[in-house]
Amino acid sequence: MNGDRVPGGGPGRRPGAGPGGVPEGYDPYAFEPFAVTVDLAVLTLREERLHVLLVERGQEPYAGHWALPGGFVLPRESAERAARRELAEETGLSETTVAGLHLEQLRTYSEPDRDPRMRVVSVAFAALVPDAPEPRGGGDAAQARWMPYGTHGPLAFDHDRILADAHERVGAKLEYTCLATAFCPPEFTLGELRQVYETVWGVELDRPNFRRKVLATPGFVQAVEGPPRLTGGRGKPAALYRAGEATTLHPPLLRPEGRST
Amino acid sequence: MNGDRVPGGGPGRRPGAGPGGVPEGYDPYAFEPFAVTVDLAVLTLREERLHVLLVERGQEPYAGHWALPGGFVLPRESAERAARRELAEETGLSETTVAGLHLEQLRTYSEPDRDPRMRVVSVAFAALVPDAPEPRGGGDAAQARWMPYGTHGPLAFDHDRILADAHERVGAKLEYTCLATAFCPPEFTLGELRQVYETVWGVELDRPNFRRKVLATPGFVQAVEGPPRLTGGRGKPAALYRAGEATTLHPPLLRPEGRST
DNA sequence: CTCCTTAAGAGTCATGTTGACTATAAAGGT
DNA sequence: ACCTTTATAGTCAACATGACTCTTAAGGAG
Fold this sequence. Notes:
The structure is a homodimer.
Chain A: E1 35-46, E2 49-56, E3 66-67, E4 70-72, H1 79-91, H2 95-99, E5 102-109, E6 120-128, E7 144-148, H3 159-176, H4 190-201, H5 207-216, E8 221-223, E9 241-243
Parallel strand pairs in A: 1-6
Antiparallel strand pairs in A: 1-2, 1-4, 2-3, 2-7, 5-6, 8-9
The structure holds a DNA duplex.
């Protein structure tokens, strides 16, 4: 063991510092640095389908391919802050709006050759947005679009993997957390909430059973007092609810079969 | 948006590259680099208590404090490989043994000031080891020890947070995965498996109910044929089992109350 | 205006799972 | 022998779930 193997801390052993890795003063420029970026799997529901925010690459490598939005972590910000900043930039939403969105760190992708140009370590996030405004067409060449999940070709880099991991994570968290409300506007019907589960899981749920389960879970949703109904589509008007205090579901709301996707 | 905002990929915009972040050739030395490390929360069970592998820091900052083991990600390895390499170094286990251990990426900690010396982004892992050999006293000054979870003082850097996150993650995954067997040797009794749950969750579980649940879950454990019992302690000898094929538990084995820790 | 369609919401029923317990078996210790 | 400890076999009631049925309240077509 090393007297100053400072894991969460700064380096105590410089790569190539000699046999045994004797600690020496750390020189940040002594070896090729890592770039640290964030990648965002921004998910929303549109027309009963799961959509992802994608950007088209204008340059090599992967020119013409679609990719997840993302960017560099700046020297004085955390990965979370970088992710929220990028999210605001890409979606065109205000900083305050973005501050309220559900943003969840997925995992970090660090394979040495995931970017052919240099060593890039990327912290991936899943972001869940309710209504899905069209992304503002940034000032540059590439375009950004909401694409139905699965309809895009292969994504650039390892972004297919990241997106799949995001989908899996969100699907799993729907089972035992109140995360579904993150896809909904402030006030929503139980039908809309059920639509979240059905869309993400790719299954059909029994209406009455879903209703019973949700209402029986304390703090999942709370009824809105005012006008007890919502107009819009056909069928009987539905009561409105807000997200409740609870964050976890006990017992969970399990997916019909073993696993999906 | 940027024509080459290459998130999971290499930089397309260099910090400070000018208004609008016009893509230019990337110069890795143009700004202070990030160091990328791994931190390991190595957990095991000893004498019916959860133990953590800790190393004592010999240098400032946090000299004399205990810290999680860890180290640098080398230029040509992934964070996972770095974690496994460090795990082998710290525990003294062979590379092949370590290759079979459960290693799970927790999340990445990237607060700008988490290390006072420089910008360090750390990918944290939880490792679950069965028997807990004493860590080899490395060739250097600092010592490494198994410490009962919670008995150590405040850890260095943000390692208390990382360790708490590791505990929470492992506790949660016991509910809906077969992870508990990762704490057990190749052959184990149901009593030992129950001990894993009780120790990590800090609760007592009903013996017959636990047994019924585990045996009713297909693929969780499989009975060992040979000698149908194990010697050792007092009480009726228990049958031996191995870990089964299954990785997930449907339905889950929920903790008694809402949440713990 | 009437009928049809759609979705919300109330309620039923059989089944499966869980938590709480009781009882028996098989070891070691005194 | 007797007590303690742990494994293992059951029992039973409360609860949760999946599969349905039925009623209500809208919009749309004729």
